[in-house]
Design goal:
By secondary structure, this protein is an alpha/beta fold. It is built from 9 helices and 19 strands.
C-alpha cells in the first residue's frame, strides 16, 4: 500500500476510542489519528492532554482540521452509531462503524436504506483476522478437511461469534434457524476489564447455548458471561468437515485412504527464555509452511490488537483504492441479525428463523 500513514478520525472519546489511539501510537509510521470529536470542551482538553491528539467539538471541525481523515470511526454507544454513520455518509466520508452497526433489526434496516447503496460503510469486525482464526480459515479455504459441515464456537459473544461461525461455514446471507437457551450456574469471576477483584465468591453467571441451522450446515454457539476475561472459562473451537476436523490448533485428516494423520498449528512467539526479539507472535505454521504472518512485527501487540491493526490497515488500503472492502456493512448487518435471533430465541424459548433482508445481495 502507499507509504503515507493511514489517517483516521474518531467520533467519541470513550475507552474504545482510546484503544484505537493507543494502537496508532504503537505504529506511527503506519497510522495517524487526525482528531477526536468529544461532547464537551472539558473532555476535549483531557483527550488532548492524555492522548496527544487534537480534539474537536463537531464532525465539521474534525473534517476541516489540519489533516483530513481518510475515514472516520464512530466509537459511540449503539444507539448513536447509526446516526453518526448516516451523517458521515451524507458528507461522503468513508466510515468504519463499530460493532454492531445498529442496536436492533429496525435500526439495521434503516441504516441499510440510508447508507447501503453508498458503498462507504465498513464494520470493525476483527475476529476473522485474529491470528488463530485466520490460520484456520486459510486451511479451510485450501480444503484441508474437505467440505465444512459444522462448527462449535465457545469464545466470544453474539455478532462476533456469529461472524466466525458464518465465515467458517462459508454461510452467506441465507436464512438461519436459531434455537437457543439460557441457563444460570455459580461461577467465580475474579477478573474483568477493571482488573482483578480479589473475590473468588461464586456468583450466578448466565450461559447461552444456541444451535444455528444454515440448511444442512450447523453452528453451535456457547458463551458464558464475561468469558473474554474470566480465567476460569477457556475458549475452544471445533470445525468438522467431510475429510477431517480442526480442534483448536490440532488438525486431523487422511494422508491416504488408510492413514489418518494429525498436525498442529504452531505459533512462533518470541521473548521466552533468552530470546531477545521482543514478546510477540511472528507467524503460525502448518506442516512447516506459514499460514499466518504478523505484518506488524516490532510493535509488540497482542493477537487481538494485531487483528484490529490489520483491520485498520485494510480499511486504509480500501479507501485508497488499493485493496478490497475489509468488512462490508452487509456482513455486519447479517452478523447482528443472527445474534438478535439468538437473544430472541433464548428469551422466548422458541426457534427463530431469520428473514432474507435487503442487504443480502
Amino acid at each position: 500500500m502507499s507509504a503515507a500513514p493511514v489517517r483516521f478520525g474518531l467520533v467519541g472519546s470513550g475507552w474504545r476510542s482510546e484503544f484505537f489511539v493507543r494502537l496508532a501510537r504503537k505504529l506511527p509510521d503506519r497510522f495517524a489519528v487526525t482528531g477526536v470529536v468529544s461532547r464537551s470542551a472539558e473532555r476535549g482538553a483531557e483527550v488532548e492532554a492524555s492522548w496527544g491528539v487534537p480534539a474537536y467539538r463537531t464532525v465539521d471541525e474534525l473534517l476541516a482540521g489540519a489533516e483530513r481523515p481518510e475515514f472516520v470511526i464512530p466509537s459511540v454507544p449503539w444507539s448513536v452509531t447509526p446516526e453518526v454513520t448516516k451523517d458521515l455518509v451524507r458528507r461522503e466520508v468513508p466510515v468504519l462503524a463499530e460493532t454492531p452497526p445498529a442496536s436492533d433489526l429496525e435500526g439495521l434496516r434503516d441504516l441499510w436504506r440510508e447508507t447501503g447503496g453508498s458503498g462507504l460503510v465498513q464494520v470493525a469486525e476483527q475476529y476473522p483476522l485474529m491470528a488463530g482464526h485466520a490460520a484456520r480459515l486459510a486451511l479451510l479455504r485450501e480444503g484441508v478437511i474437505g467440505e465444512v459441515t459444522s462448527v462449535q464456537m465457545s469464545s466470544t459473544h453474539l455478532y462476533h461469534a456469529v461472524s466466525l461461525i458464518r465465515h467458517t461455514l462459508g454461510a452467506g446471507f441465507e436464512s438461519a434457524t436459531v434455537t437457543a437457551k439460557d441457563f444460570t450456574a455459580p461461577l467465580a469471576d475474579p477478573l474483568s476489564r477493571d482488573g482483578w477483584s480479589g473475590d473468588l465468591t461464586p456468583k450466578d453467571a448466565s450461559t447461552t447455548l444456541a444451535f444455528l441451522d444454515f440448511g444442512g450446515r450447523m453452528g453451535l454457539y456457547d458463551f458464558t458471561d464475561n468469558q473474554w476475561w474470566n480465567p476460569l472459562r477457556g475458549r475452544r473451537m471445533v470445525v468438522r468437515g467431510s475429510l477431517g476436523e480442526i480442534i483448536d490448533d490440532s488438525v486431523v485428516r487422511m494422508a491416504d485412504p488408510r492413514t489418518p494423520v494429525e498436525s498442529a498449528l504452531v505459533r512462533r512467539r518470541t521473548g521466552t527464555d533468552l530470546n531477545l526479539e521482543g514478546v510477540e507472535l511472528h507467524h503460525i505454521t502448518f506442516d512447516g509452511r506459514v499460514v499466518y504472518r504478523n505484518e506488524f512485527v516490532g510493535a509488540n501487540l497482542s493477537e487481538d490488537d494485531l487483528a484490529v491493526v490489520d483491520l485498520l490497515w485494510r480499511t486504509g488500503a480500501w479507501v485508497r483504492g488499493e485493496g478490497p472492502q475489509p468488512y462490508p456493512l452487509a456482513e455486519g448487518c447479517q452478523d447482528h441479525l443472527i445474534s438478535l435471533a439468538i437473544m430472541e430465541s433464548a428469551r422466548t424459548g422458541a426457534a427463530v428463523t431469520t428473514t432474507r433482508e435487503a442487504w443480502a445481495v
